[in-house]
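New to this. Comment on this protein:
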Amino acid sequence: MSFRVNLEKAAWILVLVLAVLARFYSLGERVISHDESLHTYYSWELSEGRGFQHSPLMHGPFQFHALALSFFLLDDSDFTARVPSALFGVAAVGLLWCLRDWLGRRGALVCAVLMTISPVLLYYSRYVRNEALVVVWVLIMVLSMVRYYGERKAQWLYILAGAMAFNHATKETAFIYDAIFMVYFALLFVRENLQEPWETPVLKRVFGLTLLAAALAAGVATVLSMGGVGTEVMAEESTAGGSERVVTRFMIAAVASIIFALLAALVVLCARWHVVRRYVSFDILVVMGTLVLPQLVALPVRLILNADPLDYSAVGMWRTGPVLAILLLISLGSGLVWDWKKWLLCAGIFYAIYVFFFTTMFSNGHGLVTGVVGSLGYWIVQQGVERGGQPWYYYTLVQIPVYEYLPAIGALLAGWWVLLRARNTSGNQKRVVQANHREFRAIPFLGYWVVAALVVYTFAGEKMPWLTVHIALPMILASGWVFDKWFQRVDWTVLRSARGVTAVVLIMLSAISGFKLIWSLAGNNMAFRGTTLDELEASMGFMSAFVVLLGSLVWLFTLARKIGREKIGHVCGVVVLGMLGLFTLRTSIAANYVRYDSQTEFINYASGAPGIRVVMDQVEEISRRATDGLAIRVAYDDDVSWPFTWYLRDYPNQIFFGGEPTRDSFRGTPIVIAGNNNWSKVEAMLGNRYHSFEYIRMWWPMQDYFHLTLERVKENLLDPARRTALWDIWFRRDYTGYGEIHGMDFTASNWPVVDRMRFYVDKDLGAQLWNLGVGPTALSVPAEPDPYQLVTRTRAAVWVWGSPGGGPGEFNRPRDVAVGPDGFIYVADTFNHRIQKFDREGNYLLEWGSFGIVERDEDGEFGMLNEPWGLTVSDDGFVYVADTWNHRVQKFTVEGEPKLVWGQFGDKMELENMWGPRDVAVGPLGQVYVADTGNKRVSVFSAEGAPVRQIASGGVLDGELDEPVGLAVSDDGNLFVADAWNGRVQVFDTGGAYMRQWSSPGWYGQSLDNKPYLTLDDAGRVIASDPEGYRILVWDGIGTPVEVWGEYGSDVSAFDLPTGIAADGQGGLYVIDSGNNRVMYFAR
């Protein structure tokens, strides 16, 4: 057989070549995103022989097998990870060749062009997601249904079963496609039965009435679910009684709809079995319905048994197993009754593919459970989660107008075409056809598919940009169909004539000048507004555009009289379509090849920023220079784990420390990568021994389209400046004007919706790599030894008490602790706004205090507290409390009786003016020392609250303070101050004169929680908390490190924000572990 190339085949070859180039060009340039890295890493593990276990969290297993094969054949990289998607993207374009008879030859070619340049389909053909794969399976399903309808050959049912299996093994959207297609064939089945005469007319009426009842019940259930009831059902429990009643109504309506539909099916099958078996629609319904039925097991388990289908325990499986067995039996029985030979072959093909992939080539039997039960079960849960939280108009007002406007216009034209034809043929008699070989007409199916997809994805809980693929696909097919019909009416010889070319030029001039004319009246720089140079230029532009438009239209009118108005209309349509195609091509090129790493596009959700690749380039360069390979130690946290788990796969000494860093994680580790949620923990342990570089790790599109109201829409449409800003965003993705209007900065470095990361490099290593560090002069400077590393110990608390809450013995972020002369323990339960008293073993005794703000509670100032951060107990038995955000000090008896209060908010020189005092201490002479933190000083008062003197003032010099917090007074009257933001302990004599200081690691962070406290033990040692270093520091009286212990965690030797500390005079130490809401006691 010879292959002859004609014009049509040449056009298809050209389109396929362009599709290949478009999908493979610079395929590996874009940074792997968070979601992509999950797929790539686990596929890489499979390619390395480490197996794979299916999880619905990452959709179907097929993509992992395809990626593993790509890695096996082509090695692992960003490029090869995207090869399967790119290949399937090309295959989808090629498959349209097989639909030429259905869409029309020109229509199929137009579809191929639209799919090649579609911004969304192209983007996700270059992205490690399932969408490009799904498109191929869906097109094969459509092809098999079209061909079976026309030929009724069993081979197309087998292909349909195989495509369904691959679709379910790829992504859970398969359930949506099954539902959309099956509902359409059910409607065909109903129409065929209602149009034909029945042997028993009464049964036909019963059939119609039961169908009507089913439709009404389904409508009621839909209305109730759209009111939020459906999500309450999926979320398991309803709260109020009213909600329970509504959920019950929804379930009753849904069950009633199913019962009526089953009754209708029973009636028609019993009355017309031998007739309906000749219906093509019935064959397709049986095959699809019986194959998908067992996979719906999550629905009855959830709705009827009110159980969790994702419960894979033995108890859960005993609930789910019988339901699954019943569905399998129904499926088997229905198939065998229909046509046992065909059905067994269809089922064999379906389950062979399904089992092969879900069990990972028969190595993971549990995958069948997670596939059959978990796929739909997890997807249902995700609809309640509403990932992304996008508004209901996300597709209709954002994704489609920004990217898929050409297919949307084509789909609307297809609908208009059908309505126009229906009106013109409304008087004709109904066409009588045989039920067993009806024509499977394209546009009714495609029009239904477009509407159904748009409605389903609009009201589904999860709305994401990649789901636009499933809306754009039927729009592209409908556009191809209508353009085929229209192209058949175009006289193409006109376009090739001189008058046709002239008309094309005139139409383009008319369009451009018309747009300029409208924009001169509607844009920001409107015409005829004034006499400034810009305003005069706008007016001249308007007049010029008007003259060009008028001349073009007059000339076009003259041409129309010569060659005909209809032909001019055809030329106009071709020009408009061509211009829209160019706009679409421009949009696609910008999104895929220009701004692919910029989040000014809306085409993706959470994208990896270029900083990821910058960091990895530096990691590789440092590693190769330092180890002559990839053997360097790199530590990273849970914030950046994706995509860095993928990018660090070849680094054998990588260390993942999650959200709980320890010093062991960083010991001998010259490179650390951490996200913004863990910066305070990491930097407290790294100290100033590392260079730090900050980058954007992940960013999201601008989301100001949330919460649109009619007022906002009206304001944006009527205000010329806002219209211009929105045009700039749509046409150029330029947010400058929009940012100026709203006072926001949309430059890349200040993009508002981001997650950031920091890249830490050891300074010693940086000094050796001069171009990355401080320069070659540092090579001769030996690294200073860490004085704290030699004295680091592991100590465990002997007593621990407390838990989160507001009850007796429970805490809410406590901050300080004190030991009274009677041995009792007093705790500032800061965010419960109270003081609690315990015995030394932690047994609760009493509490006092309640929330109150001085300005609001004038009648109840005494005893009311607003976040007390510090307290101490004097030798004469009084408790002094730093009532921090009431900006005062309160004095109580040890039983909680209020005795005295002094202080007020202010930043003046008077000592009574305080600003957020954080701690209080009592000296040997009974004087009260207050850490007036906000005023950067220590204020001294008598025991009765009379001002005595001020110690220090704000600054960085010796004797100056910046954020003083913890206080301790020695027996000889010397004052020790935790000078937090200066990162040091300072010592003052009894008169307030500066004596000495030493630095403290870990205090340089200026967060709200990094507030260190001090105490002195009976040996004269200075003990301090290092809150965000998660440790306790001990020095001798002159600042020599003596002991260090603690790390991040929740066991008896770890802390989560240690703050207040108090020595008990017997060598023991009480520590407030604020983040874990507990008190810990460490014995000598």
Q: What stands out?
A: Residues 314-358 form the longest helix (45 residues). The longest strand covers residues 690-699. Residues 228-247, 427-437, 772-783 have pLDDT under 50 and may be disordered.
